[in-house]
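Quick check before the chapter quiz. The format below is the same one you will see on the exam, so make sure you can read both the input and the output lines.
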Amino acid sequence: MQARVIRLLFLAISMLFLSTASFAQVGVSVSIAPPELPVYDQPICPGDGYIWTPGYWAWDGEYYWVPGTWVLAPEVGFLWTPGYWGWGGSGYFFNAGYWGPTVGFYGGINYGFGYFGHGYEGGRWQNGHFFYNTAVNHVNGDAIHNVYNSRVDERSVSHVSFNGGNGGINERATPQEEAAAHDRHIPPVAAQTQHAYVARNNPQQRVSANHGAPPTVATSRPNLATHPKELPPIERPQAPNTGNPKLDQKYQRQQQTVIAKQTQERQNLQQKQENEHQQLTRQSAPPQKMQQVEQQHQQQTQQLQQRHTQQTQQMQQRQQSAGGGGSHGGHR
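Here is the expected output.
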């Protein structure tokens, strides 16, 4: 059921292709370089079609570790380009990862498990199926048969997690990686966004608590929100820009109405789930019953998130169509 929900979430946003500009540096300059990448073992691949997305240090005022995890590819033939930190002249900026038909530049960072600085050696798409390189991936060959074994010679084993600056990786994008940056892309899918948000809300994942050795370095599947309050904040689409001020105002009101409705639906579901928790506590429900209810709550929350993603996508498509393509709303 969980895999089905994840795949539905992917399909709900698979048409939201973004321009190259959408994958530019995140506009927060950090004066402190991120810590070294922790050394960890890769969890076993949970099933066919999952692609490894390496862990990374994220920032919200301090660094916290987002665990590496296996993620269902949002589209056949798509691969993951990891995000990376790079020196921008005045500080370190994060370049967000993305899905696309080819792997772009990820700073020359050696994330391991096929991501050794340039390209991806962990597998390839062939006849609509992803074939796993078992030399660098932990795959159960009894369950997944589309595998091969091709040894990879790493040029260097480095745990440096950033490009440029003092002590950073000194690599530049190849012409092929530059070309990949101009291909069509899909941003991190909903499961990845939730996975990162769960890590952000875990105090033990923060460098101030773990001193560069996070307790959870990798997971077999993305950590998904169980309750609406654990979902990332609702993303606001870009302000409409059709060239017609009255039409832009109309579209903006539509966006505000949708966001307000989605916020209310989150609050209603959160309250409903909290009431159920309170009732189970009063009844001294056994752990098995509590676990069942938690699974139901996660399904409800993921279905709500899927529906909201579809609503936002449909609204943007209607506005773009009615506005003659002048409104460029989208997720960043």
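If your answer matched, good. Residues 2-224 form one domain.
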